[in-house]
Amino acid sequence: MASHFEIELEKLKNIIEKIGVLAENQVKESVKALLSEPVSEGKEVKKVENKIDKLDVKIDEICQSIFALQQPVASDLRFIMSAMQISNEIERIGDLAISIIKKSKNIKDKHDLIVKFNIADLARQVEIVTIKTNECFLTRSENTIGEIFILNNTIKNDCDDAIHNIINEMKSNSKTVVSGTNLVIVLKHLERISEHCTNIAEYVYFMINAKIIKHEKFGEKKSDN
Amino acid sequence: MKDIKIHVNDLSLYYGEKKALKEISMQIPANKVTALIGPSGCGKSTFLRCINRMNDLIPDVKITGEMLVEGVDIYDKNVDVVNIRKKIGMVFQKSNPFPKSIYENIAYGPKINGIKNKTELDEIVETSLRKAAIWDEIKDRLDDSALGLSGGQQQRLCIARTLAVSPDIILMDEPASALDPISTSKIEELVHELKEQYTIIIVTHNMQQAARTSDYTAFFYLGELIEMGKTNAIFTKPEQKQTEDYITGRFG
To answer: What is the annotated localization of this protein (chain A) (predicted)?
Structure first.
């Protein structure tokens, strides 16, 4: 029979899984909003955002109570420390997705720029990285963690290139300045989402191996896997 | 590890036919606190009592292997057990003051060791009580019976009594398990201060106490030493699965 403590840990794991899936859907919605005309008014998206916020607080409360009452050690301690950080990262991913949805509305002529600079591919990569992030938390697969690090690196480079190109476009054609600027902000948000996913992967790595790898350079991280 | 105070090599202990300690090898660092943890019957108290040859008092006990304290095997035939116990003090789970005055409890050991000068004894009594963080509480009633003190005070008095004969090593067997949280934290704080001058080995069932007070932790199970390491490492990333299972409460 599972102990009271194990039930608490399982509960925590389930909530993180849930909040992770919600954020993943928000990212999907934001990519949709960016690549095609926004379908709805965004009421549903707002509702989900509130849900994410509530779960984020709930996770903090559960962790606080476990720390106070159970004094976790070793792998339990690492799991709870990671849980708090991961929920924080997920909540931010949700916020960024909302912000992308809002900004997307302001990108006039956006399709031209998006097609011209192949933004769709980049956005889909970000979608994939969020899916893989949820997967790595559940499966604790080190392979998936490695894939996330590699994907994040690609996304980062692609974002830099795209932003560079958009700026050049704005220089030569002043009509694109408004939508171009908004698109640059959206790209930065996408890049941040991928970065938060990488952070989550790092916490999962810490959970498994008791080794803190955040702030390490990509090459060091990769060779470590 | 830095200076090693005690080298234990392949130490086994038998109670008659039963092998209670199985080839224990470990190194206990000087001026550090080493905690021994493990479930009841795992041999941690038996091991602690090997360090000052307390098991000599139990019939049918056979010990093999070496217990080197500062390089000297304390189980060597030529070693005087009284001298060993002078150097290695012990504090027990239940405080056991003599039914004498507070002053006499502390002065007893030094007197047996031949110190007769009143001024010198006074000084030892005061220093020992101060070191045991109890002087301020009882300095005005040194002639009162020690049995009138509270449990926590009695335990600190026993620690002071141990310190009075200037040991090098202090063994503590569940020293705070019968005390309330305030007395417990006083004892733990004391352990922390005493390690500057003494090598301390503490047996405890309270995992948090081991984590709070010790520099090194050794985990015993079924008479074996499963793992010993820095306390910080044992409680964050133990190397053995059995240790992990025990400290996270998933044993058996």
So the answer is: Cytoplasm
Chain A contacts in chain B segment 200-239 (CB below 8 A): 207-208, 211, 235-238
Q: Does domain B4-97+170-248 have CATH number 3.40.50.300?
A: yes
What is the value of pTM for the model shown? 0.84
Q: Enumerate the domain spans of chain A.
A: 4-224
Q: What is the pLDDT of residues A5-42, one digit of tens each?
A: 889 999 999 999 999 999 999 999 999 999 886 556 57
Q: For B97-137, how does the pLDDT look when each residue is reduced to its tens digit (9 = 90+)?
A: 999 999 999 999 999 999 999 999 999 999 999 999 999 99
Dihedral (Cα; B43, B48, B50, B53), 10-degree rounding = -140
Q: Residue A1: closest CA among chain B residues belongs to which residue?
A: B250
Please tell me the CATH code under which domain A4-224 is placed.
Answer: 1.20.58.220
Q: Which of residues 73-92 of B touch A (CB under 8 A)?
A: none
Burial of B205 (0-12, 13-18, 19+ CB in 10 A): middle
- Nearest CA among A183, A167, A18 for reference residue A100: A183
CB contact under 8 A, B249 and A3: yes
3-state secondary structure of B235: helix
